[in-house]
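ligand=glutamic acid
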Amino acid sequence: MNLEQILSTIREEVSPLTGQGRVADYIPELSSQDPGKFGMAIETLSGESYSVGDAGDKFTIQSISKVLTLSLAFSQLGDKLWNRMGVEPTGNPFNSLVQLEYEKGKPRNPLVNAGALVVSDILISRTAYALKDLLQFVNELAGEEIVFNQEVARSEKEWGYINRAMVNFMKGHDNIENPTEQVLDMYYHQCSIEMNCVQLARTFLYLANHGINPRNGEKILSRSQSKRLMSLMLTCGLYDEAGEFAFRVGLPGKSGVGGGIVAIIPGKMSLAVWSPGLNDHGNSLAGIMALELFTTKTGLSIF
Ligand code: GLU
């Protein structure tokens, strides 16, 4: 299978979609992204790398970071994590408050904002250096130095009224231990992690490798934890479009409003795609199409 060739065919086939969709505009720093950009990268467990288009351009990974912080919290807390949040899809937008009220401040799952905010709270409770530890964790996975985009983090904090409401609401239900501002600071910094597609695909290779960092053999998650985490990605990783994504692509994935999506083929490879034009669910329009084309053309998926 010539993956190089497949990537360049995908790039051509998605070109009518690039430039379409809406770039995230809830903060000025994201609204200036060019919707015409498209990049895609593949990293395999056998050490091959493939990329196409703007795969070297950096963008903020936003909600994709939820998988990284969840990995840290799951490895530290084990199944106690599930006392603080559930594992069911929501069918609601990523920052919906409505379900939280019915469910008394216990988020449905760790991949919507409410759940990720509780995960941030958990990481802060364990160490005074949660942000530094997160960056070090990401650096080790990426194999190079990765940084926060401080401008994006600052702007999100300034505009993030709904996330602030969510943290306060959960605090009112005793599901947040730390001060609201501290939790938001952690969360917005993780969202502002900046990477390109090649770095992103490399960073997520530990999931393709069932929880072991292929770079140094370090165990991040047990095989069972890695299975559970990817199951959550499959059922909850694309906001209220997770069903459609599973149907079209057939892989565990996670998207972010920066226009990035990662997807994992367990035992084989990780894929990262980026195109900032989003559909109505906040997912990259060309990104989803590219992943759908990839699994269709290669026959590689979990099914
Ligand atoms: N920083 C964004 C927020 O919490 C992330 C949203 C996303 O990528 O889904 O509003």
